[in-house]
Write a structure and sequence with these properties.
The protein has 379 residues and is an alpha/beta fold. It contains twelve helices and nine strands. Strand 7, helix 10 and strand 8 form a beta-alpha-beta unit.
Length: 379
Amino acid sequence: MRAKRDEPGDMPGRDTGPLDPYPPVTSGRGGWIGGPGFIFLVLILLILAGAGLYLQATGQLAGLLAQGGQIIDLGRTPDPATTSASEDGPALQSMASMDAAPAPAAPVKPLVLAAMGPAELLEKRPPPKSLRLVPGEFDQPPVLRFSRPALFLGTRARIGVLVTGLGLNRGVTAAAIADLPPEITLSFSPYAPELAAWIDAAQAYGHEVLLDLPLEPRNYPQDDPGPLGLLTALNAEENLRRLGELLKESDGVAGLATQFGDRFLADETALRPILSELGQRGLGLVTSADLADATTGMADAPLHIRVDEMLPQDASRQALTAEIEGLLAAAKAKGKVLTAVPAYPLSIAALTSLTAAAKDRGMALVPATAFLNRQGTAP
């Protein structure tokens, strides 16, 4: 028998055997996909995506982006050395810098600009539970029970600030509650929607609360105090009825602050029954007029005080800076000063650094009730 001839392609003298239908892969291309490295990369991407969604849901993403972006923080006082004048007036300078004192530190958190209600404010920017204003004993009059204590003052000059007209503009109201120091007293319009909820939100941030008392001004009816305004032409019974309506939704307020009212405050016949009612209810009163004559001989006169000055409603940033600088100077000279400030965006922004400015000059920012007594002078 003849030997098998080698076919072309066969190795001489070697039996190749049957062909393997699944030869092993010898190339490395495509072997990484599906491997441990690929799975690790997918996990990293999922973790980053989850972190981004969490930051966005909790409101922290905007703060991180603002660190590297151009988001304007209206709660900060612009640096006069680096900020140029804008179309709406010169840059707001540091109040303490005007007398060569070190500039106060700007607030860390930005001023709230979004229009949000009280419930939304507490949900999106919940204050620390320890900040809430704790009422006093239940048998105390409201002017004491719902006041914010002013402690450890020593001999330092005292500055009191009362912001009025809150509750009508939700964005400004939310900013005043969340971004102003808790020592600043907040007064709400009796016509504000959700008045009781706004009062609770303000107290959750540590503020003591007053209620605006709408009184007849000299130019009435050009300036109208509203459907519950107290008027000199009304009899005492009707004015007292209106006062009762005003106070229905105001549980938790320490007192009232007059709004307008120069004609009503000058009419003792109309004013004295209101003062007597407030005194019997245990409510304090902050006014724009001296009540010494009106309260003469009254055993039930309320604790009251006249504000030393009122900031203008339409002030520019430059004017507000000058006004607040004058407030600090007056407090230093007289030892105490109380001012009323209308609720406007620029005024709220200017007041955010007042605590730092007062502390830098050795003064103390105190709530408005710290100035109340029966003689209408600060203790």
